[in-house]
Structure formats: C-alpha cells, structure tokens
Amino acid sequence: MRSVARTALILTSALSLSAFISQFGDPRLTARLDKETRDAVDAILENAKKSGIPTEPLVDRALEGASKRASGSTIVSVVKGWADDLRRARVALGPGSPDAEVVAGAHALRSGVKLKELERLRTAKSGVRYAMALDVMNYLVNRGVPADTISPVIVNLVLASASEEQFAKLRQDVERDISGGMSGATAVTLRGQGIERQIAEASAANGGAPGSALPSVRGTTRAADPALNPTAVGAVQGNNNVSGAGDAPAGPRGKPKKRP
After folding, report:
1. How far is 164 from 158, CA to CA, in rounded Å?
2. Are 243 and 198 in contact (CB under 8 A)?
3. Does 111 share its domain with 30?
4. Is the domain of 139 the same as that of 185?
5. How far apart are CA 28 and CA 19, in angstroms?
6. Cα Rg, the chain, nearest whole Å
7. pLDDT-derived band at 220, boundaries 50, 70, 90
8. Which residues, at least 6 apart from 211, have a Cβ–Cβ distance to it below 8 Å?
C-alpha cells in the first residue's frame, strides 16, 4: 500500500508541476528573463507543445541568450527560429520520430542539409533509429564536409540499416582522413561506399536477411572512438586507407612445411 501511495504522490506532484508550468511558464525562464521577453518565449513554447515538438531545446536557447546578455528581441528571434526548424524536422521525419531525432534533424537543417534528405528517412525500416547518424552528419559538416555531399551518404546508410557502431567508425575514419590531408567530400564518399559494400556482403552472407548486426568498417568500435568520446578526436591511430580499397588478405603465419 505504501508503494502505491508513494507512486500516486509522485504522479500527483508531476501533474501539479506540469499544470504550474503551463499556467505560469517555466520557472527557469521566470528567474532569468524580463516579463516581456518571458511572455513572448512562453507563447512560443505553448505553440511548440501543441505542434508536438520538443520544448527543452527552446528553453535552452532562451537560457543561453540570457547568459550571454542578449537583448530580449534577440532571444525571442532565436527561440522562434529554432521552433520553426524543429517543426520542419518533425514534419519531415514523421510524427512518430522520437524527440532526439527531431532535434538532430533541426540541427541538420541548420547545417545546410536539404529538407528532402530528411524526408527520405521516413522510408527507413520500422524500428530503425537514426539520431546518432544525424549527429555524426552534423559533426562532420562542422568539420568542413559539404552538407550536400554527406547528407545523401548518411541517409543511404540509414536506409541500408547501418549500425550505430558503423556510424561511429565512419566519423572516426573520416576525421583521420581529413587530418591526413584528404578532402572531406572525398573521404566521406569513399568511406560511405565502403560501408555500403560491407552491408551488401553481410546481407548476402545472411541470405539477404535485413537488420543483421554488422561489424564496423575496420575492427570494432572502442571507447576512444570520437563519436562516443569527443575528447578523443585525433587520438585514434590506425591505417589511413579507405576501407575496402586496396586491402590485401593476410598471408599464412608460420614457416611453410617441407613437401615430402
């Protein structure tokens, strides 16, 4: 009975807090924004809730603006711009997309990715999650890879059911290629082609069964991979060759036996 009562109390408290925020606005904003700015931001948040888009990123933008001592009009403009991009991403990805994917999609749009590329993700197999794939795309765009080059590569890999490990390895390999002097566009194109070949080969080996667990392009993903630990960027050492390009099979080990 105590457990039931405790659960009921938690639910009641959560509902009360939700009602308070709905009526009086987010208390974090109340403490940081002047009334005029807060009222304008609250209106944007309310419209966002009705549209089914995540509001936490909008609160973060408003608090960031307050920390930077931006003017009220600037804060409102930034929050509204993000709300518009989140709404476009939600429509493009579909109503069933988790908030993490919608947020990553909004970042992709801001990075220059075309809306039609996000719309292609709606045809991904049921259960395929691609927030990490979009995060990798956004990161590499910020590293100088052209958005119109990397976006179709990432989307094609998502539709081919590439694993999160493979996307982590893609980021690591492209970063290493760029550091080695290769252009970002060339690196991501060749690496993407290597993963697509690997997926096709794995699918053929499994009789064409989709959704199989796939190995990474080269070896396994380690804790030091940049996609999992951004502080490790540049610390990963290894072969700079593009996967699948010029790899020779390992020769036999040991001394050859003498023929009788």
Report:
1. 10
2. yes
3. yes
4. yes
5. 15
6. 24
7. very low
8. 125, 127, 161
Q: How far apart are the first and last CA of the chain?
A: 83
pLDDT value for 129 = 84
pLDDT (tens digit per residue) in 63-95: 999 999 999 999 999 999 999 999 999 999 998
pLDDT at residue number 24: 52
Domain range enclosing 128: 124-240
Cβ atoms of 202 and 247 within 8 Å: the answer is no
The reply to whether 145 and 90 lie within a common domain is no
Residue 37 banded pLDDT, cuts 50, 70, 90: very high
